[in-house]
Design a protein that fits this description.
This protein is an alpha+beta fold and 466 residues long. It folds into 2 domains: 13-319, 2-Layer Sandwich (Beta Polymerase, domain 2), CATH 3.30.460; 335-465, Immunoglobulin-like (Sandwich), CATH 2.60.40.2420. Helices cover 42% and strands 22% of the residues. It is built from 17 helices and 17 strands. The strands form 3 sheets. A 7-stranded mixed β-sheet has the order 3-4-5-2-1-7-6. The longest helix has 34 residues, at 67-100. The chain is globular.
C-alpha cells in the first residue's frame, strides 16, 4: 500500500510544537509547550507563530501558570480579535457591492468560520477575505468591484497571469482598496479548475445573514476539504490556521464523511485529504472515521504522492502541466473524470454498423468515448466502431471548444479485422498543455462516412464537461 510522507514536512519544528500545544491532549500539549518555551524566545516569535498563540491562550492556565506570560497571551488574543474585526469591516464594502449586483458568493476558509462563530475571531486572524463567485459571473463580479474602486494587487506574477489568461491563469485574483484585500475566487482552489468542479460546493452551501448581508458558507464536509487543500498548498508563510479551523469543524461533529470522501475523489484530492487528516489524527487526537482514512489511503497512486510531496518545494509559483511530469499526469486524471459524451441517436443506418460495448435499442446507436492516460503529455480519446459493411471512406474531425480556444485534429483511420467484422478505430490525441486552459466547456466530433453501396452518413456529436 502506498503511503505519504513518514515525517510530516508540513511545518517547522517551532510551528509544529505550537500546534501540538494548541490541539493535543493535555500531557502532549504540556510537553510541547515546555519544549517550545525552552527552545524559542517569545519576543522573537515570527508572525505566523504569533497567530497560534491566540488559541494556546485558552489553555495557558494549565500549560504554564506564570502570571506574566498569561497576561501577554491574553493580550495577543485581544489583538488578534481587533485585527480580524478591522479586516472584516474594511472588506465589507466589497461584499455589499456584490450583494447589490445580485451576485451570490461563498465565504471561504477563516471568513466562513467567523461569520458563523464570531467568538472564534479571538483565535483566528484574518488579513484578507476569500470569496467564491459562480464561474459564469466571474467577469461581472470583477467589473463590479473594479467600478467600486477595487484594483488588482500589483504583484508582478498576478498581473502577468491575469493579462495572459483571466480565467484559466489562476483560481483567484487578489484585489485591494484602501489597504483592504479580497481574494476573488472563480474556482475554489488551484488544482480543480474545470467547469463544474464547484457545483457540489454551491449545491450544499447554506445562506446566512451577516450584518445585514446575505452570504453563503460551505457545508462542513466541503469546508474541511477546502481547508486541507489550501492549508497544505498555499500557506506560503507556513501559516497553520487551517489546522485550527479543521479541528473546530471535526469537533462540531457535523461533517458528513461520505460527502467528504466523495468530493475528495471527484476532485482527485485523496492524497492531500489523507495527509491533512493523518496529521490531525496523530498530533491533534482528532477522531476521524478509520474507514475514511483507509479509503483515502487505498486510492493513492504515485502521481498523487508526487503532487503532494512537491507542494512544499515549488511554492509559491503555480504549477503548469507542461513543466512537471506529475502535474501532467494529475491534469489528465482530473480532466478524465469530467469528460462525458452523451449517446447519439441514428435512425437510418442502424443495420450498417453498431458499437459492441454498449447495447443499442430500437433506432438508437450509442457510441462510447473513454479518455485514457498515456505516457507522455497526451490525453487520448478513443472511439471504436464495429462495421457490418466495409466503408470506402471514413473521416473523423474532432474539435475542443472553449473560451478563446479551438483545437482540431483529424487522426488517421485504422482498420482491424476481428470476429469476422471490420473494426474502425479512431484516436484523438490532445496535448495535455491544452488541459490547463480550463475553460474548455465542450467537445465536438464529426464523422463523415460512405459505404460500398455509395450511401453517405454524417454523424455529429457534442460532449460536455459535466
Amino acid at each position: 500500500m502506498l503511503s505519504t510522507t513518514q515525517n510530516s514536512p508540513l511545518f517547522s519544528e517551532s510551528l509544529d510544537l505550537l500546534l501540538r500545544a494548541a490541539l493535543s491532549p493535555e500531557k502532549d500539549a504540556i510537553a510541547s509547550w515546555k519544549k517550545w518555551r525552552s527552545s524559542y524566545d517569545i519576543d522573537l516569535t515570527p508572525w505566523n507563530e504569533v497567530r497560534l498563540l491566540g488559541t494556546i491562550a485558552q489553555r495557558i492556565d494549565w500549560l504554564e501558570s506564570d502570571s506574566i506570560i498569561r497576561s501577554r497571551m491574553i493580550g495577543i488574543r485581544k489583538f488578534l480579535w481587533v485585527q480580524t474585526q478591522l479586516c472584516l469591516q474594511k472588506t465589507k464594502s466589497g461584499l455589499i457591492t456584490l450583494h447589490d449586483a445580485e451576485i451570490p458568493f461563498i465565504l471561504l476558509k477563516g471568513c466562513g468560520r467567523i461569520v458563523q462563530s464570531p467568538t472564534s475571531a479571538q483565535e483566528r486572524l484574518i488579513r484578507d477575505m476569500d470569496i467564491l463567485v459562480p464561474l459564469r459571473l466571474r467577469e461581472k463580479a470583477f467589473n463590479a468591484l473594479k467600478i467600486a474602486g477595487w484594483e488588482l494587487v500589483s504583484d508582478q506574477w498576478q498581473l502577468e497571469y491575469f493579462q495572459k489568461a483571466p480565467v484559466s491563469g489562476h483560481h483567484a485574483w487578489a484585489l485591494t482598496k484602501n489597504g483592504a484585500e479580497i481574494d476573488l475566487h472563480h474556482y475554489s482552489n488551484y488544482l480543480n479548475r474545470l467547469v463544474g468542479d464547484d457545483d457540489e460546493f454551491w449545491r450544499h452551501s447554506k445562506k446566512i445573514d451577516w450584518q445585514g448581508i446575505n452570504v453563503r458558507v460551505l457545508s462542513p464536509a466541503h469546508a474541511l476539504l477546502t481547508n486541507l487543500t489550501h492549508g497544505l498548498r498555499w500557506s506560503l508563510d507556513y501559516v497553520a490556521d487551517w489546522a485550527i479551523d479543521s479541528c473546530a469543524l471535526i469537533e462540531s461533529e457535523e461533517i458528513d464523511w461520505e460527502i467528504f470522501l466523495a468530493e475528495s475523489r471527484n476532485r482527485v484530492l485523496q492524497a492531500i485529504a489523507f495527509e491533512g487528516l493523518r496529521y490531525l489524527t496523530l498530533f491533534a487526537s482528532q477522531k476521524i472515521p478509520q474507514k475514511i482514512l483507509q479509503s483515502l489511503e487505498q486510492d493513492l497512486n504515485p502521481a498523487m504522492l508526487s503532487e503532494l510531496n512537491d507542494y512544499y518545494k515549488i511554492m509559491p509559483s503555480p504549477i503548469e502541466p507542461q513543466q512537471v511530469k506529475f502535474a501532467q499526469t494529475m491534469a489528465v486524471q482530473r480532466a478524465s473524470k469530467k469528460l462525458f459524451i452523451p449517446p447519439i441517436s441514428i435512425s437510418f443506418f442502424k443495420k450498417l454498423f453498431h458499437y459492441e460495448s454498449i447495447l443499442s435499442a430500437n433506432n438508437s446507436l450509442f457510441i462510447g468515448i473513454s479518455p485514457q492516460e498515456l505516457e507522455g503529455s497526451w490525453l487520448t480519446v478513443s472511439i471504436q466502431l464495429s462495421l457490418e459493411s466495409s466503408m470506402s471512406n471514413i473521416e473523423l474531425l474532432g474539435r475542443f471548444s472553449g473560451t478563446g480556444l479551438e483545437f482540431k485534429h483529424s487522426p488517421p483511420d485504422t482498420f482491424l479485422y476481428r470476429d469476422g467484422k471490420n473494426i474502425a478505430n479512431f484516436r484523438l490525441e490532445i496535448p495535455v498543455s491544452v488541459l490547463r486552459l480550463r475553460e474548455i466547456y465542450s467537445i465536438y466530433f464529426n464523422y463523415s462516412m460512405s459505404c460500398d453501396e455509395g450511401r453517405d452518413l454524417s454523424v455529429e456529436l457534442e460532449g460536455f464537461l459535466a
